[in-house]
Amino acid sequence: TARLLSGADVGIIGFGDLGRALNRLLTGFRTCTKVYDPWLPPSILIDNGVEPASLDEVLSQSDFVFVVASVTSENQGFLGADSFAKMRKGAAFILLSRAGVVDFAALMAA
After folding, report:
1. What is the Cα–Cα distance from 71 to 85, expressed in whole angstroms?
2. Does residue 34 have a pLDDT over 80?
3. At residue 76, does pLDDT exceed 80?
4. CA atoms within 13 A on the CB side of 26
5. CA angle 96, 76, 82 (to 5 degrees)
6. Does the CA dihedral 102-44-47-60 come out positive or negative?
7. Which of 43, 55, 63, 65 has its CA 20 to 30 A from that of 2?
């Protein structure tokens, strides 16, 4: 059941300083990286070598989903049951940011 990061489809949710640092680390693995960050214009994502994508695209088309989004009053618990249901079977969900963006009851149920 081992999965390789090399050549994998990777999704990143949030592309602030931590997301950009993560992207630099991933370049050595030759991943196809899609990023969802509603606060940034697509040109910034493209300039950083990633593909701008919707949240649904990141969730449904990624083998690995890295969450590095900051918590705001608008995104508290926004990754819930609907989000986890959209993910690929066997995809890895890696939370590297504040836990407040995830509905943990929904995560455990998924």
Report:
1. 22
2. yes
3. no
4. 25
5. 85
6. positive
7. 55
Contacts of 53 (CB under 8 A, 6+ apart): 11, 34, 35, 36, 61
Helix (H) / strand (E) element for 105: namely helix 104-109
pTM for this one?
0.92
Indicate the residue type of 67: V
Residue-range domains of the chain with CATH: 9-109 (3.40.50.720)
27 burial type by CB count under 10 A (0-12 exposed, 13-18 middle, 19+ buried): exposed
Q: Which residue blocks in 3-95 are alpha helix, DSSP H? A: 17-26, 42-47, 55-60, 81-86
**Does the pLDDT value for residue 85 go beyond 80?**
yes
pLDDT, one tens digit per residue, over 9-24 is 999 999 999 999 999 9
CA dihedral for 54, 55, 58, 60, sign (positive or negative): negative
